[in-house]
Design goal:
5 copies of one chain form a homopentamer. By secondary structure, the first copy, chain A, is mainly β. Chain A has a domain at about 1-75: Beta Barrel (OB fold (Dihydrolipoamide Acetyltransferase, E2P)). Chain A has one helix at about 55-60, and strands spanning about 1-10, 15, 25-30, 35-40, 50-55, 70-75. In chain A, about 5% of the residues lie in helices and about 30% in strands.
Amino acid sequence: MEIMQVKDELTVTRRVDGLKTASLRVLIDHKGGLVVAVDTVGAHPGNWVFTISGSAARHALDDKGITTDLTIGGIIDHWDDDGSRKARPDEGAGQDQTKAPRSAKARKAA
Amino acid sequence: MEIMQVKDELTVTRRVDGLKTASLRVLIDHKGGLVVAVDTVGAHPGNWVFTISGSAARHALDDKGITTDLTIGGIIDHWDDDGSRKARPDEGAGQDQTKAPRSAKARKAA
Amino acid sequence: MEIMQVKDELTVTRRVDGLKTASLRVLIDHKGGLVVAVDTVGAHPGNWVFTISGSAARHALDDKGITTDLTIGGIIDHWDDDGSRKARPDEGAGQDQTKAPRSAKARKAA
Amino acid sequence: MEIMQVKDELTVTRRVDGLKTASLRVLIDHKGGLVVAVDTVGAHPGNWVFTISGSAARHALDDKGITTDLTIGGIIDHWDDDGSRKARPDEGAGQDQTKAPRSAKARKAA
Amino acid sequence: MEIMQVKDELTVTRRVDGLKTASLRVLIDHKGGLVVAVDTVGAHPGNWVFTISGSAARHALDDKGITTDLTIGGIIDHWDDDGSRKARPDEGAGQDQTKAPRSAKARKAA
């Protein structure tokens, strides 16, 4: 699973039937490249997420009939783009982390 | 899923039986490399598309017996090769986007 | 699916049972690296081919019990190593294309 | 399977259901990149591990319903980050190897 | 399938159950990176081998329950690390090829 940042939504009117009406996101991978993933957790531009690839990308969805090879697996609670996670006083799941100051101090889940 | 641009059709007279008569396209990936994908959405040279790889490439097809590892998943409505999508007054699905002026402003699907 | 050129046959006396007596080829990928693929279409050194990877590599074979992760999917009728295909007066499937002059003009299959 | 070093735990409150409550680790791959893996062997930051990817990542788990594409397969008894393993007088499985002096001398399992 | 050279055995005391007691090898890939593969053909350090990845890595084993994503598919009879195979008067399957003089002349299997 890889760590990426959500860049944008993706508009695809003409698509294969297998994708149904899945919500698509453009993500930036760690090399700066752009990829497309199915999103079911409600990730927003700026969120740091990790992605599930391959056949697991389909198994991760409630509707296993959606033919994706990349699915957002979750929104990382705290992440800085230098690869460190951060504890913030106002932390909460699903917040936009893009403006978070960077810190090398990691924190464990409660 | 990756974002690529259609370069050309591909002529392959001698092929494995598993590919049947699937329509093949040569695509340019984000590194400038060339790959081959099955096309069922009618993509034309110049179109920006996203591709589905791995076992999902087969599941994306109506005929799951076609042995591809890369299938065009859809034609992106608006895309510039600097990674930004663009709203155009004359926009429409399936148009050739190669000559579209670039813009960093994204737009959502209706 | 990727575009590669056949370099040589491969002699492997001691192999896993799952490969059976499949014919193996050494191919050169687009980065100049060497990989090994199962060949069932009769590709010769110098031929430009495209390869099917992953689980599709097995499905592409008549004998699905052969445990390959890379199979030659077909011989490209006309290909130059600058990435363009070429129309030749004497063209024919399965010819050795290594000595073909280069051209950026593509041609469609009849 | 690839050799990586455990960097940290990962906190992901909002995740796809398929991941259930699997314990996640951030790993550093051999290129210095960061990836996320499911851990069931109890790896700690600093441990050298090898990872199982693709569909095998799911099969490696007792609960095959966990939708991962990367699972820690085991903790390497002795490993230096220059790629050599080391015999130590106080060696034992599961120790933190990060402070081990480097040596090019490999040792076999008992 | 990729061509790699065996570097060493790998000692992993604490491992996921799915790997059982499979024999593991550290291999050097064509970029100089290190990977881990299951070995059932008896490859020794110095041997040139080719590897089977993905789901095929499991299918290649007699015990398909072993959860590997990389399996040694066979020992290449003659290989030089400049990518050419070599015919030797004393050639035989399974020999250590590390000391073989290099030659660009390939030879076909008998």
